[in-house]
Amino acid sequence: MYRNLLKLRYAYQPQTSQLTPIKMTVREAINLAMDEELANDPNVFLIGEEVGQFQGAYKVSKGLFQKYGGDRIIDTPITEAGFTGISVGAALYGLKPIVEFMTWNFAMQAIDHIINSAAKAHYMSAGDQKASIVFRGINGATAYVAAQHSQCFASWYSNVPGLIVLAPYDCDDAKSLLKAAVRNPNPVVFLENEILYSESFELSAEARDPNYIAPIGKAKIMRKGEHVTIVAFSKMVEYSLRAAEQLFREGISCEVINLRSLRPLDRDTIIESVKKTGRVVCVEEGWPQSGIGAEIAALIMEGGAFKYLDAPIQRVTGVEIPTPYAFNLEAITFPKTEQIVDAVLNVLKGAR
Amino acid sequence: MKHFMRFSKISKAFKEVPSQYVYQINPIKNFEPIKQFRVIDLEGNLIAKEYNNIPKETLNQIFDLMISIEEMDNILYMSQRQGKISFYMTSFGETATTVGTTAALQPQDFIFPQYREQGSFMWRGFTIEQIVNQCIGNHLDGGKGRQMPVHYGSKDLNIVTVSSPLTTQVPQASGAGYGFRVNGENKIAATWFGEGAASEGDFHSAMNFAQTLKCQTLFLCRNNHYAISTPTDDQFRGDTIAGKAPAYGMRTLKIDGNDLLAVYNGVKYAREEIIKNKEPFFIEFITYRIGDHSTSDHSVLYRSQEEIDSWKSGNNPINRLGLFLKKQGLRQFNDEHDNQIRKDVRNRVIAALKNGSEQQSPSIQDLFTDVYDEVLPHLQDQYTQLREHLTKYKDQYPINKFKGGL
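Structure tokens for the assembled complex are given below, as produced in the milestone run.
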């Protein structure tokens, strides 16, 4: 039913014979996605603080100002409420803004525009007003930046009808999901991760094709397994994969699901996996109450997979406190490989 | 409540006033720009003689602090490059504004800083050690290692803790100033913000509130020409930030922010006026950010070294004050003594860094305290779970680095 509400566009024609995979950082993949979309559609523009002449606060928009000029890469005064409101207006008019927040933490100054002006516009106007807009920025922990720079907003935004919420992990995700977001006529919240920006992954031949866009609402199984399903997104996918590798050496086979799309959630993939393994560990950086893990637990119970469960669902989440700064305190605030391994062992208790 | 409805004292009934009409379209533009108040010139010569009234001892203490902050900022900036602290923000070129202002305020006045006001903190007694321990985030930090570097605060010194989202402190200062007036206190709320932060919506709300509801608030804008890489030309139009204040009905001063005597006198005047008239006052300091925005910035990427040098040697607050003191015979000491002050501060900062980095982290219990006024049951549970996890994997975690251990 969800898929009917979205206009999935597969503009992709396989031409992989000419392209080979190439290694690049997630930062470069996002840059490439924006470059291709700016070239593809003159209505697309990038707007935010320091995105133009400074090359981006995190250098994600490097080179774009030189290539497309100040009319398409727009540096703004310091007011999130201001530039977000302006961008939603531009989107309602028919342009296609990509709005960059220096961090999703600062987007709270603009959240009224994201929710009340963008997310609800199509419904409230009976289809007259389309807010085709992408909001992107870094989300979650960044390391040594404390409470007002480290919150994860996945659960806040994935709660809202009218929004599409995406959380990429590697280069394939970052490039092909961002392109899909730009071309989608609905408002999209794109949650990036600052630590992942500098990490390198292979960009597949398929994702290198400038016409390839990823399907929204589809999770990706990063590693097939038989004993436990680990569900994660963004940076936590990395720790989940490491935990799976560590556990494999002890004879435990984990299936790692990279959600990629938080709204809509790929319920089918999750439930199929649970039916196979019977045990689930959900991993997220954010706080436990009302988090993504809570939603996954509910949908497993409701979705017909309840009788396949051999153990209660285990959640691994961030500690339920505003993020502290001191290095050693922050190090025990967010989940890492050890906590995921622990949770898998817990969920298997009594199984062997 | 005695009254259920309160009619406005000012009737809005229509009254014809012929003098308020014109019969030609003549839109207003290009107001006369407000001029900067100045007392000494670029070479430290006294021009506005009636403002040469600051006690000699105060002037010397201010000068000592300005050169100390310059040395401290240098070492702490470099210590970030060396990996000793993770982040820092210097205040090169702007210490006349912060130190001069704080010296002209009263100790009971509340200060709501932005993030570049180490001058305000240190004038009131915040020590080098407190600064370094906060930047490191060890257990001696008054903030219990909760905040990023430069996010200092002190209840004792009446300085509200620095908060990252820009401009949120400004309406808070309007609120505090409102409380001071309603309670009839001899106190003002002085709030700092940059010319970039004045673009945020909160600035408008704060200014409008303060004048309309008559708050004992002093607005202090540091116009240092750059907001990270965004120059003022890309930030606003009109007569800088000061030009906006009269539109709110607020009394306004624009001051040469690199002239310490102008800063001190201007702020002293503003404070007296706020208490006397029970309404806010706006001051904009025109100054220049000689250093980078922060350790995450490399400003020569967007401005020329010549531009920086033109202020560093042409309009430098420390040089101007130093020359004034020498020419007036007010500086008790010679250059050698000043160099010794600088050397002593450098050594003190280095010692604080060394000592600070050897200290333990705040305790594991402090991860869970202060979320609420008391540690609620769910947090108590999570603490127990964490302790179990750390006990099980204690060889993978630096337990001895936490104060109080496990």
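Confidence is low (pLDDT under 50) at residues 1-14 of chain A. Residues 26-40 of chain A form the longest helix (15 residues). Further analysis is deferred to the final report.
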